[in-house]
Design brief:
By secondary structure, the chain is of the alpha+beta class. It contains 7 helices and 21 strands. The longest helix has 23 residues.
Length: about 450
């Protein structure tokens, strides 16, 4: 017992010196930043949470990612931690930075090129290789930090991979019967409903929306019709005609993994005109149409009855420029200004049509075109086919959600650099993309599911 007595006496002596022990530990756990899920699809909401922070303290959330061209994009948001030392983007309000308010995905839709990014970027973020993700580094910083303050204390960080292609989705390049396209197949044997995906007059082959459709269970075909090296003729013209688009539609119908009577068409911008034109041709019977900010007729002179066109730049009398020399094509698409005889006879439609218009669209007079389509269908007793969604503050490019708005973009570099205006403001545009995407998927579910 002697050792125990000695130890006890030593403790009493120490107690008399320091005034007693504080048995409660003052140690605080290391700050933790989490994101759930960490490998979502691009249209999935992410829950971002910071823990083990000082209570009622200012912190900054920062998102950084590189475009496929190597340019840095970033967003900042200022928060104040709760009494329990947490910050939660699905619950808390940003009080400053790239956006304000409770915006769970604000760090993603508010991304902008970082200061000093090369001028040629012109604020458009594109995903060309859909087989790789957008990789975003989200950091939790001490205090309220602005983009210009590069010296800041990083408390924690996490990396998020955002994908357009879900695991198991298959991508195949299609080069048959003259088609230049990319086919996306959902996992499994099918059969599946399908979508033909048409983009605007900017041309090329845009695959990201089609990849996302396949990730949601739809066979999808993204079709190039202009501005692609494997298409015939000058790249500034449309050198394929109606038969080309019919072939693409029938390619989907005839695919062994597709429900032949469950094929729809979606078009954006000039792709709206092509979607309407294709849907009203003999032998093409889509189950539904989705039109986003596009005209009912051609805004470019047609060379023949098949729909081939001149160069877009051949008709400039309706272009207008802002004080910085950036161009808007909005007035070109006023129904009264469209190429005579090119307006689609939408009275021939027999399938449901959803038209999405943006009220700050600086590229297309989409509201006026939507109203004309509605009037034409109502006049023949088909108003029940038409659904119109209209979004204040949104711009031309309504894309899958949680992606940045493109208010302007490089249209051409020759014979001179030309910047095209698309319009839209970040927060209302983001809200429009989120709501429109949900309604697009619901519309497809209602009219396409086998």
């Amino acid at each position: 017992m002697i050792p125990y007595v000695n130890a006890h006496r030593s403790l009493l002596f120490l107690h008399s010196i320091v005034g007693g022990f504080q048995w409660k530990s003052s140690y605080r756990s290391a700050t933790l930043l989490s994101a759930v899920p960490v490998r979502p699809l691009i249209d999935e909401q992410i829950c971002i949470t910071g823990r083990f922070l000082p209570p009622h303290s200012p912190v900054t959330l920062r998102a950084q990612m590189h475009s496929e061209e190597g340019d840095l994009w970033e967003a900042f948001a200022h928060y104040n931690t709760k009494a329990d030392g947490t910050v939660n983007l699905t619950r808390d309000h940003s009080v400053g930075g790239s956006y304000l308010g409770c915006e769970p995905m604000g760090l993603f839709w508010s991304l902008q090129p970082s200061p000093g990014a090369r001028e040629a970027l012109f604020y458009r973020l594109k995903k060309q290789n859909v087989e790789t993700p957008f990789v975003t580094l989200v950091s939790l910083l001490e205090g309220h930090v602005s983009p210009s303050e590069r010296q800041s204390t990083e408390l924690a960080a996490t990396t998020i991979e955002r994908w357009y292609m879900a695991p198991g989705v298959r991508r195949t390049e299609i080069r048959q019967d003259g088609l230049v396209a990319t086919l996306f197949l959902p996992p499994g044997p099918g059969p599946f409903p399908a979508m033909l995906d048409l983009w605007g007059f900017g041309g090329g082959l845009m695959e990201h929306r089609a990849a996302l459709f396949a990730s949601r269970g739809y066979v999808s075909l993204s079709l190039a019709y202009k501005g692609h090296r494997e298409l015939p003729g000058p790249q500034k013209c449309i050198n394929v005609g109606d038969s080309y688009f019919r072939s693409a539609f029938r390619f989907l119908q005839n695919h062994h993994q597709v429900c032949a009577d469950r094929v729809g068409i979606i078009g954006l911008s000039f792709g709206v005109y092509l979607s309407l034109r294709t849907a009203t041709q003999t032998g093409v019977n889509p189950s539904c149409l989705i039109c986003i900010n596009g005209p009912i007729g051609s805004s470019v002179k047609l060379l023949d009855v098949e729909g081939r066109t001149e160069e877009f730049e051949s008709e400039k009398k309706y272009w207008w420029y802002d004080d910085q020399g950036r161009v808007s094509f909005r007035d070109v698409t006023l129904p009264a200004n469209l190429v005579p005889g090119s307006k689609v006879k939408v009275e021939r439609l027999s399938c449901p049509l959803m038209y999405i218009s943006s009220q700050d669209d600086l590229s297309t007079l989409s509201v006026a075109n939507a109203q004309l389509i509605e009037e034409m269908l109502r006049a023949i007793g088909k108003s029940q086919l038409f659904t119109h969604l209209s979004y204040p503050g949104a711009g031309h490019l309504i894309e899958p959600p949680y992606t940045p708005n493109s208010r302007m973009s490089l249209w051409s570099t020759k014979p001179q650099k030309l910047i095209s205006l698309f319009g839209g403001h970040p927060a209302p545009h983001a809200a429009a993309q989120e709501d429109a995407w949900k309604k697009i998927l619901d519309f497809m579910e209602n009219h396409l599911r086998c």
